[in-house]
Amino acid sequence: MSPLSQFKAVIFDLDGVITDTARYHYLAWKRLAEAQGVHFDEAFNEHLKGIDRMGSLELILASATRSYTDAEKLALATEKNEHYKELIATMTPADLLPGAVEALDAARAAGLKIGLASVSRNAFEVLDRLGITGKFDYVVDAGTIARGKPDPEIFLKAARELGVAPGDCFGVEDAVAGVASIKAAGMYAIGVGDPRVLAQADIVIPDLAAFPLN
Ligand code: G6P
Ligand code: MG
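^ thats the input. predicted complex w/ magnesium ion below
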């Protein structure tokens, strides 16, 4: 019996776990940053994973040579989102990462409740394009969250709505801020990616093809 079978719910992140939208966020931020004269690479992007839109923009503009008004920031965030929406417009179920559907189905077969905790305001659209909306018992609406990751609010809200105590949940995340959010919520954390980067996770797997319940 898998040690994960003691849990009652699993709460997944979306971008970079279930589908490779993390790549699209990277491309959209890189174009915006470079247009503002800010150097942008994979290492910097690692700090943005799991961080909400305005928070990510603030981190990028902190390296710019001038300051920006709130109206300019809003315009830049909107421009980034429009670019991102162009990138996700062509997504289909073929964009599910290896093992993603199997992980959702294995969690269901194990009797777990299944939640989604993404701070992306595009999460509902991405789930629809991937054809997996119906596989979740509850999807947090990012627009209702006051504090983004690494604050635990989003994972705690998912647990509450699923009717499961945080200690009976585990979370699945590809971002440093996301793993920190899971741990701050008092949950077991599965990191997806590089164990050196996701050092705070309880276990780290390379991708969902290695999901322990599959
Ligand atoms: C996820 C991604 C972040 C992204 C955030 C907000 O957490 O990991 O890279 O900035 O969602 O996404 P949004 O679609 O609302 O701009
Ligand atoms: Mg992510």
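The chain has a mean pLDDT of 97.
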